[in-house]
Amino acid sequence: MNGKITRNVLVGIVLAVIVGLFARGLLGPGSPAAERTAALLHLPADIFLHLIKMIVAPLVFSTLVYGIAHAGDSTGLGRIGARAMAWFMTASVASLSIGMVMVNLFKPGLGLSLQATGQASGIDAKALDLQGFVLHIFPTSMADAMARNEILQIVVFSLFLGFGLCAIGEKGRPIVVLVESLATLMLKITGYVMAVAPLAVFSALSSAMIQHGVGILAVFARLLAEYYLSLGLLWICLLAAGARILRGDLLPLVRELREPLLIAFTTSSSEAALPKLMERLDGFGVPRRVYSFVLPLGYSFNLDGSMMSATFTTLFITQAYGIEVPLTTQVVMLLMLMVTSKGIAGVPRASLVVVAATLSQFGLPVEGVAFVLAIDQFMDMGRTATNVLGNGIATASIGRLEQSKASAFEASEVELAAPPLSSAANLLGRS
């Protein structure tokens, strides 16, 4: 079934390019008929994303609470959380550093000579100030957080509920059973929703091709080529890190992640890929208590592609305006990006918001963000797929470490329970 959907997604991509370019040539670029056709073609993709948003909140809530309730003890959960955050911080530094090095090496904005006008960029640069970010973490209403799909707030509430259920023990058993049933139900519904993914992929891409055509790629060909080369280097680093832990199982994991990556790339939505990512990690053998805890955290704190994109775009804009930024200032900007990029999953135009906030903080032309809006959709495809890959490898690796820890613990228990062979031999000799 998984292979069939993957094949259908690939067919959808090819058909979308053919149909989109044909309709664009037939109706005329930018004509009212072309715009109406693009809007109609995009309708199935809009419905698909609505369905995804419908299931994301209850899916994250149920699987996370289930994972905490079945973690066994707070020590095991704390160990998983510590490993996850250590991985996330290391990956953050790697992605930001690669982006900084590559954009300084290629200098894609050099020679554009844009002039600062002081006009607004249309992006809310204050969306990620420190006070707002900290307050945003904690929900005032769980119903409101669920309604708005605020993943970080849902994670916080789920943590409180999960730890509370562990604390009250047997009294909370009925709620644990209910949450487990809800998680199973949501995974089943996820299967129904994901069955229409190939149609959504065709819908979204064909609409984009009618509106933009291939010309938009030609205009920014150099920027996109260097940006995707940088993402490729980041992928190599992520895969190498996974190989150190998963070893021979890395290739099977990549095969499992094909469909979530295609969905993320073509829809530019991490939310769209989350249900299938959970399903594929489960099929790979990652314990549910691990992926149901690590993945929601990763969606808030491990956005490798978004951080790479933010670094690349920020320095590209400074180059485009002919502004020389010293290396020390770039490092400070990198550290700021690492902080402000956490928890941006629910913010519209997340990476561009981070870029605007950083430019504003350093007195750089914020209106430069508008210059990259034309190709942000195509950059978003790459960074979204990278986010999914990074979270998939991180979760599978942490799951493998947890399984190794459990196996070692069970082996030590067996060893302690059984008398040493020499002692057994001595006892036989005495008898």
Quick summary:
With 431 residues, this protein is an all-alpha fold.
Order of helices and strands: HHHHHHHHHHHHHHHHHHH
**Weakly predicted, low-confidence segments:** 119-128, 420-431
CATH architecture: Orthogonal Bundle
Tell me the number of helical segments per DSSP (H or I, 4 or more residues long).
19
Mean pLDDT, nearest integer?
79
Secondary-structure-derived class: mainly alpha
The general outline is globular
Classify the beta-strand content into a percent band: under 5%
Report Rg: 24 Å
For the termini, the CA-CA separation is 62 Å
CATH class: Mainly Alpha
Number of strands: 0
Largest sheet: none
State the CATH superfamily name. Answer: Sodium:dicarboxylate symporter
CATH fold name: Proton glutamate symport protein
| Percent range of helical residues | over 70%
Please, how many domains?
A: 1
Write up this protein.
By secondary structure, the protein is mainly α. It has one domain: Proton glutamate symport protein, CATH 1.10.3860. The chain is built from 19 helices and no strands. Helix 1 runs parallel beside helix 12 (250-267), helix 11 (221-246) runs parallel beside helix 18 (373-417) and helix 15 (304-320) crosses helix 17 (350-361).
